[in-house]
Specification:
The N and C termini lie far apart (about 55 Å). With about 260 residues, the protein is α/β, with parallel strands linked by helices. The chain has one domain (about 5-245): NAD(P)-binding Rossmann-like Domain (Rossmann fold). Helices cover about 45% and strands about 15% of the residues. It has a seven-stranded parallel β-sheet with strand order 3-2-1-4-5-6-7, with helices on both faces.
């Protein structure tokens, strides 16, 4: 129970990667504040799973793209639990279209949630941790999209690249306060959100073609986040953890099909 008596706020925490992280941290002893925007029933189910682990859970239906609402959420978490020790910026939005013809409303929404939302949560959480004076841990869930220019995902690529630099800068600025900021770069993870872009058949087919032969699971990202929040990783800040089953390796070169000389 390495996170006993800790309180963690997880954005986008009701399903997918966020839920995987919430369950992992709760299993290690943390009480969980679940931010979500959408399915209330889904969020309640996640909260109940956390309570079954013997931990407290509370729900915060807040749009992270709204700075004032994020700041109020952090204050509400502290009022409910007494303090905030861990924050995980995980909430995202993404539309996939060629940038030259993209609907700009969706383009802006992607950046507002994925970049600005992460910043607002990082800032408000860090401010609270500084007031507490006891250090803390912030985990930024990024993506290989931050350095691989995936077509039709320009807004998401831009936003993820920005939060990588955000996390590194914050890590440096918060060293004196002993607040650690680290990143996770998940590969293709089997989550409900993937069904927005791909059919079940495509997910099954492409998953088998990946180096590890399958998509990743949310619980695997949860264990990565747990390590970054564990006091055992105290010497890590400004670091990135790639959890992708080898997907960003040049796997197309397997079997001698590499690029020509």
């Amino acid at each position: 129970m390495v996170l006993q008596n800790k309180v963690a706020l997880i954005t986008g925490g009701s399903r997918g990667i966020g839920k995987g992280i919430a369950i992992a941290l709760a299993g290690a002893g943390a009480d969980i504040a679940i931010n979500f925007l959408g399915d209330q029933h889904e969020a309640e189910e996640t909260a109940e799973q956390i309570r079954q682990l013997g931990r407290r859970a509370a729900l915060y239906p807040v749009d992270v793209a709204r700075q004032a609402d994020v700041e109020k959420m952090v204050a509400d978490v502290v009022n409910e639990f007494g303090h905030l020790d861990i924050a995980v910026t995980n909430a995202v939005y993404s539309d996939r279209e060629p940038f030259v013809s993209a609907n700009m409303e969706g383009f802006h929404r992607t950046v507002d949630v994925t970049m600005w939302g992460a910043f607002y949560v990082l800032r408000a959480s860090a401010q609270q941790m500084i007031r507490q004076g006891a250090g803390g841990s912030i985990v930024v869930v990024s993506s290989p999209h931050s350095y691989i220019p995936i077509p039709t995902s320009m807004a998401y690529n831009m936003a993820k690249a920005a939060i990588d630099q955000m996390a590194r800068t914050a890590a440096l600025e918060l060293v004196d306060q002993r607040i650690r900021v680290n990143m996770i770069h998940p590969g293709w993870i089997d989550t409900p959100g993937e069904r927005k872009y791909a059919s079940e058949q495509k997910i099954a087919t492409v998953g088998k073609q990946l180096p590890w032969g399958r998509l990743g699971r949310p619980d695997e990202i949860g264990r990565a986040a747990l390590y970054l929040c564990d006091p055992a990783s105290e010497y890590m800040t400004g670091s990135s953890m790639l959890v992708d089953g080898g997907s960003t390796l040049p796997w197309w070169a397997k079997g001698g099909m590499g690029v020509p000389d």
